[in-house]
Amino acid sequence: MALILITGASTGLGLAAARTLAAEGHEVVVHTRSPDRVPDLVPHGFVHGDLSRMDDVLAVAAQADAFGRFDAVIHNAGVYRDPGALQVNTVAPYLLTAAMSKPRRLIYLSSGYHLDGSTDLDAIDFAETRVRPGAYEDSKLYVTTLAFAVARRWADTVSHVVDPGWVPTRMGGPGAPGDLEEGHRTQEWLATAPDEAIVPRTGGYWHHRRISRSHPAASDPDFQHELIERLEAHTGVELG
């Protein structure tokens, strides 16, 4: 039995993963934006906060740490064409990663759209409050880079990225062609499978339980270093 935190678990892939893992007997802690959005699945516990606000993210980290060390954290929460794309999709996973006690496994949700993200960090404002073309793509490149940076830095924490595909959730829309079931199976597997079943042990970019192609910049130590420095400066919290 594993203790697992899932962010953005009130709907979509996060809710589907929470239901499956809870049904398998794992202790699932769900994150929602507010207490009235906790799903009807009898979770082990819940935390709440608006991930577009750094103060709330730090509060979520403190709430989560009260449960003890997690076996896995699934950074599922995300927004699409939204003013808070960078804050929710990149800054919040970074800040939770940096502020929480280190879990045994970290799983970050990315997207195939990360391949179109910009590597020009000089042009990025992590505090932007407008809907900007390309912000979603950028945010997913940066969270992918974060996951690979953690894999390089933290020897005792496994870190992976999942591309769930374009699936028919509220964010993906009813016409999305992807398989909804396959959209959440990989992150469940990465959170609970025996260590020897996951190859590579850390630093993988996964799509439907297979290693897939990621943006070359995400694996570049120099780009990782530059991104982490900028996130540390923006949040005032070091990754360590």
Describe this structure in words.
With 240 residues, this protein is an alpha/beta fold. The chain has a single domain, classed as NAD(P)-binding Rossmann-like Domain (Rossmann fold, 3-Layer(aba) Sandwich). Helices cover 36% and strands 14% of the residues. It has six helices and eight strands; from the N terminus they run E-H-E-E-H-E-H-E-H-E-H-E-E-H. The protein has helices at 12-23, 54-65, 85-99, 135-153, 180-192, 221-235, and strands spanning 3-6, 27-32, 45-48, 72-75, 105-109, 158-162, 205-207, 210-211. Strands 3-2-1-4-5-6-7-8 form an eight-stranded mixed β-sheet, with helices on both faces. Helix 3 (85-99) runs parallel beside helix 4 and helix 4 crosses helix 6 (221-235). The chain is globular. It starts with a strand and ends in a 5-residue tail after the last helix.
